[in-house]
Amino acid sequence: MGARDPEDLEALRAASDVLGLDALLSADELAVRDRVRTFVDAEIRPHIADWYDRAHFPVELARAFGELGVLGMSLPGYGCPGRSAVEYGLAALELEAGDSGLRTFVSVQGSLAMGSIHRWGSEEQKQEWLPRMATGDVIGSFGLTEPSAGSDPSSMKTFARRDGEDWILTGSKRWIGLATVAQLTVVWAQTDDGVRGFLVPTDAPGYHAHVLEPKGSMRASVQCELHFDEIRLPASALLPGAKGLRGPFSALNEARYGIVWGALGAGRDSYEAALHYALRREQFDRPIAGFQLTQEKLVDMVLELQKGALLALHLGRLKDAGTLQPVQISVGKLNNVRESLKIAREARTILGGNGVLLEHSPIRHAANLESVRTYEGTDEVHTLILGEHLTGLGAFR
User: Can the peptide bond before residue 214 be classed as cis, meaning omega within 30 degrees of 0?
Assistant: First the structure.
């Protein structure tokens, strides 16, 4: 067998699918994957290094994502696409092959903000917000994490008190995606009746947001700190169906599911960049892809990508069947992010010194995955979720 053509990406991908996993996907699933992949190739890849370097979030992509049908992708009704969990997962994988920050936009908008409204909102709230959010005409954010309440949201200090028929919201949130470009934030707050969710317009008097910067990760996206200074909200701002931490946790599980797939995209793109480079880069009179140590690295990457894809697909089939459990999502989030980060780091080594340049994706993916590893539950949190499942003993306190 002669050396593979580094410019023949389809042949390289076919060879990398050692287990023939594409055969496990339906025609509709493959069509969704290919449509999103084409969008990423045309609209994200040519610009992402510049966006990342300038710490620029291309807010104009919101409507483009709406046209692509990836906002609230698996939600039925209210103008939402209503696609399957596997189709959404494949879309998340392709988006994160472009950049984790841009897949995060889709997750915050669709899984966290829209998902909370769809599951816990009143009919009036759903009709008012979801159709415009599905098209990207309205951007939403999700306020749960606080400066002193990250992995332990039960200790949140943001509080909403009753004042006649209204609510008065006071407190702070931190690491809130999209908040400075959003028109609506789903805010979770303590009340005298437990944790409740509120729909807070970002132009409400007393709503203050500023971008957290400079960052070394997720630079092509927006994360913010929020302050609520006695914001007065009408009774209609309350999400009526959500009471207690079950409300935000249900949204987090939706976002975590997307990460199971999305992280594989960052890992796959890092691997492909390394493979392409190794086939072209010559040292000692031969392509470095022909050296044993390089091949070992590439093989280890493909093994983890193939196993991760099987895991993600299995979870997606369970989700479509309505039997997926939160602890199973923890398996996927913990494994696939951890392994994809290892792949991105190892891919960078194949590129040598050139690998620190943003024209090559692995260094950017590695930096982004440090954030993905932390949000929606750290490695430690998911480890303890699994530990409690195995032993029956909670170890969080």
Answer: yes
Whole-angstrom CA distances from 82 to 87, 88, 95, 320 are 10, 10, 18, 12
Q: Residue 1's pLDDT is what? A: 64
Angle, alpha carbons 258-45-69 (nearest 5°): 45
- Could you read off the pLDDT of 33-42 as tens digits, one per residue? 999 999 999 9
pLDDT the model gives residue 73: 97
Active-site option among 43, 254, 376, 380: 376
Positive or negative CA dihedral for 61, 63, 67, 72?
positive
Angle CA 174–110–333, to nearest 5:
70
Give the model's pLDDT for residue 232.
Answer: 98
| Annotation: CATH topology of 246-391 | Butyryl-CoA Dehydrogenase, subunit A; domain 3 (1.20.140)
Interatomic CA distance for residues 135 and 147, integer angstroms:
32
Domain 17-134, what fold? Butyryl-Coa Dehydrogenase, subunit A; domain 1 (1.10.540)
Instruction: Provide the β-strand partners of residue 286.
Output: 283
- Our answer to whether residue 304 is catalytic in this structure is no
- Alpha carbons 19 and 14: distance in angstroms, whole number: 10
